[in-house]
Structures are given as C-alpha cells and as structure tokens.
Specification:
The structure is a homotrimer. Chain A is built from six helices and no strands. By secondary structure, chain A is mostly helical. Chains in contact: A-B, A-C, B-C.
Chain lengths: ~160, ~160, ~160
C-alpha cells in the first residue's frame, strides 16, 4: 500500500497544488473565524435567535428580551454569507485551475490576490470602511475567480 | 519538475474529469452571476442593507430611506442561497463521482442534466415561472446528485 | 484510454481517500436532507415565501395569508445554513488533508468524529436539545476541521 501512498503524495508534492492547498486552507480558516466573531457579538450584545440559547438568562419574559437582532451580529452574518458565496466558487474553480497546469508564478499571483482581497473584504465589512472599499475588494476576488475559470475552460473544455 | 507537471495533467486529460471541470465551472459561474443580479436590483431598486452603501445618496434621513428590503432583491438572494445549498453537494459529490470511474456517457448525462436543471431553476425563480416549474427543476438536480452519491458509495465505501 | 482510467482510479483505491469520499458523501447527503425537512415544514405549517408557491391555495387574500414565516421552518433553515458554514470548510480542508498523507487510523478518527458531530448538531438543532448540546457538537466539528487544517499547512505550506 505504500506504493499507492507515494502516488497520492505526488499531488501534494506539486508546487502549484501545494500553493492551492495553502491559500485555500488559509481562506477557509478565515471564513470559519466568522462563526467565532458572530458568537462573540451574540454573547456581548446579548442578541440570540434560539430560545434554548437564552435559558441561562432565566425563564420567561426575562430571557425572551434577548431573542432579538443586533446590527453588529447581522453585519458579521452578512460578511459570513458573502464569504460562502465567493469562497465556494474559489474552492471549486481554484482546484480545477491548480490541476490545469498553470505556471507556478501565475497561480501564486491568483491565489495571493484572492486571499488578500477576501481578507481586506472582511475588514472592510466589519470596521466598516466607507465604500467603495468593500465593493472593490469583492470585485478583485470575483475577477481572480473569473480569470481562473477562463483558464480551466480553455484547458479542459469538454461539453 | 516537468515530470510532476505531466503527472498532474493526467487528471485533467481524463475525459470524465474534463467534463466534470467544464460543468462545475459553468455552474459555479452561473452561481456567481447571482451576485451581479443582486447588485443590479439593489442599485436600480435603491434597496440597500449597509448604511455605508447609501452614503452617495446623501447623509442622514435622505439616505436612510434606502435601507430597506425589496421583493426583487430578496427573490434573487433566495435563488442564490438555493444555489449554494444545491451546488455545494454537486461540487463535492460530483468530484468524487468523477474519480469513481463512471462511464463517460453516463457521467456526461449526470453533469448535463444537473447543469441544465440549475439553469432552468434560476429562470424559474427569477421570472418567476408558475409552480411546479421551480420545484421540478430543483428536484431534477437533487435526484442527479443522489444518483452520483449512490455510485460514489458503491465504489468507495470505507466506513 | 483504459490506462488513464486505471491511473484515475488509483485515487479512489487509496483507503484514506475512500474514507474521505465515504464520509463527505454521507455528510453532504445529510445536508441535502435539510432541504426536504424545510419543504416538509413549509407544506405542513403552510408557511411560504414565494407568492407562486401559494397559488394552489387560491388567489388573492386567501393565498396571501400563507406568505409568512414559521418558527419551525426558520429553525430548519438556520440548521441548514450552519451546515453550509461548517461542511464547506470540511469539504475543502478534508480533501487536502486526505491528500496530505495522514495515517489511515488518524484520518478515520477525524472523518468519523466530524460526521458524528454534525449529525448530533442537526438533532440538537431540530429537537431542540438544551444548550450546550448544540454548541458542543458544533465545537467538536470545528475543532476536527482545525486539526486537519494544521496537518495540511504542516505538510503543504507554500506561500
């Protein structure tokens, strides 16, 4: 079975694939961080959505007042959903792009710009920065994904 | 290193994998289009959710009235979320299916029907078409994903 | 072409990869089940969001009263979104982890705990169980994903 393992690790030995693995993991960890930030704001703002989450604040009306929306919580949640909407395409298209034989330097450029843009987008959303800060960072990540999609379709197109 | 690159591109040279790459890229680009449609409706309907997005309309009360929900914006957003809920399973199960050694013609059938169903679903949601148009297109994509999942589990099951 | 097919199936013949394929498929099917549960509650609670979905209940005011939110529907939808937020990172990081050459027993431990935690999370959300049931099951899945991300970065880091 060690022969098979050796074949498997060929993929992770490839530099483009290693770069994809690195930046994808970083950007997915960043997305996961949104869950912790949401939890932080829910607890500090005392703004919950599930009745069972407020049980520690007592019963009945005293707990019910914490079942409410809070602008900061909702802001983090919108940032989280925007991450999902943009990181899922990167996950899929980026993997196919990494397997389509791009130049290492070109691939690194794509991955680094995407990861940077999404990190800037998160700060722009949470601080918040005045527009077009958030809009531009979103557009940069979007454009990088389109560019990778173009390369995938040029290399692999099979309809 | 060119030897490793050659090994890498074996994956993208495989016809089933190329078909997966093609249809996955197409359907992820379609999902990404939902972001642009949402932005289009937010701007034309003047319906925003973040205060910083309305700053160009002036300050105070004059800008605040644009912080509202709009039925068309919400409709696109529901379509986008439905895409996420259904395309994420396709992304994962489809990749594993493509690696499970299906017949090329069978794989193409799965990928084409899924992509077609999701495109019809988008039109059915946005026009909107009367039911069961949207429901049926959703169910077709769902059934295709279940069929691929069955093949993956039959081939690879290791609990 | 059968030579290429043989190379392709090497991936699915690897036991760690087969385990990843199995648990990923199971957990994506579980996530897809949330769509059916949402539909079930929408129909039994008569709580819809799209006007075209209520057309079978008649026209005008008689149908409009079914355009409403229902606590049970909203609960399932929150569980579904939480799945997306946590299963998408597992999908990406888990794939890279499976390719990073972990011990089979360690990999199985990660996959089994993640899948178990997400299934418990779903029950905890839908029953609902008192806290910290849901919180703990969420945290276990989160921790497993972080552990896999650590292994990926340790093996593949290429910035």
């Amino acid at each position: 079975r060690s022969g098979e393992m050796a074949k498997m690790t060929q993929l992770i030995d490839n530099e483009v694939f290693r770069a994809y693995a690195t930046y994808t993991t970083i950007i997915l960890l960043k997305m996961m961080l949104m869950s912790l930030i949401t939890a932080y704001f829910r607890i500090t703002r005392k703004a919950f959505v599930n009745p069972e989450d407020t049980a520690s604040f007592g019963k009945g009306e005293s707990a019910k007042k914490y079942l409410r929306t809070d602008p900061d919580v909702e802001r983090v949640r919108r940032g989280h959903l925007n991450d999902l909407e943009n990181i899922v395409p990167f996950l899929g298209i980026g993997l196919l792009y990494a397997l389509s034989g791009p130049e290492l330097s070109t691939a690194l450029l794509h991955f680094r710009i995407f990861a940077g843009a999404r990190i800037v987008h998160t700060f722009a959303y949470l601080i918040p920065l005045p527009q077009p800060g958030r809009g531009l960072s979103w557009a940069v990540g979007y454009a990088v994904t389109i560019s990778m999609a173009y390369k995938v379709l040029k290399t692999a197109l099979y309809l």
